[in-house]
Amino acid sequence: MDSKAQSKQVVTNRPMAGLPLKLKRSISTKQTVVALLTFIIATAVIIFLLWDRRDTLPAGLVSSNGRIEADEVNIAAKLAGRVKKIVVREGDLVKPGQVLALMDTAELDAMIEKARAEVSRSESEVVEADATVDQRKAQLTLTNQELERTLTLFERGHVSKGVLDERQSRYDSARAALAAAQAHLKTAQRTVDVAKAEVKRIQTEINDAILKAPVMGRVLYRLAEPGEVLAAGGKVLTLLNLGEVYMEVFLPSREAGRIALGSDARIVLDPVPHFAIPAIVTFVSPQAQFTPKQVETAEEREKLMFRVKVKVPTELVERHIEKVKTGVRGMAFLRLSGIDPPPWPDYLERRPPGETK
Description:
The chain is of the alpha+beta class. The protein has helices at 3-12, 21-53, 106-156, 161-208, 253-256, 314-319; strands at 61-76, 81-86, 93-94, 99-103, 210-212, 217-222, 229-230, 235-251, 264-269, 272-290, 304-311, 329-335. The protein contains six helices and twelve strands. A six-stranded antiparallel beta barrel has the order 1-8-11-10-9-12. The chain has a four-stranded antiparallel beta sheet with strand order 5-4-2-7. The chain starts with a helix and ends in a 22-residue tail after the last strand.
């Protein structure tokens, strides 16, 4: 191979060799833009991370990581029975008193009809017993009058002692019969009360077969389906009680001892770090416990910590109920009690849209 061929081969093996000059310049410009954008993005990320760490809290403020939680409420059948209908799905929002599911009440319906018939029968017995009392009173009045006339005649010597004794015996019998009739009337009245109580008891069981939401919440799990037969206490649904939305954090004793119940707090969630949610300290554990796994920072990985509950106000939750989700991680910021508590930094005073300070 001659020298010209070798030179041509070397040139064609170079990057972008043989490309037009305009295309070469275009590729070079794009590479420069990409490098510049990469540098800008990296710088912005570093600045954001440095700003978002917020390690330099003012004296008197502490923070700890946690996640948004809500208590679970189980909706269960009070009595054994068959699930007739479930009217909600997982993820649905429910209000207090809203019907969630229905249990089959065919047997209870038959029982209450029988109990109501028993009430009617008992009431009829009361009417009959009351009439008997009136009858016994009339007989007692009559025998009393006969006894008084006989006693007058006996004193005048017109009747014998035997006739007087007979009239006295009839009077005593009438009085005893009245007492028995009155006792029977009271028994019949108590029988009515018992029958009505049975109706009320069965009606209560029928009402309990209508499963309603005891709290404002979201359906977390649907644990049964229509047609299933459940034992007494069998779970049908599980709700998240959105009336009690909170974050649990863990603080060392030197900080937990200075947290006052009812004091203001702030919650900053990872998905929306530019907003601070106002909260209230509702619980500080009186006993220390081993640090749970979800406490991640090295400073917080002390052996013993105190659990602190920071609750989001119910009114705030209700205004943003559609956006409330549990399990979201974030940071809670708390004030330590003292003579001159520090003000909140500006980034902890930024409220969600529609909320004021």
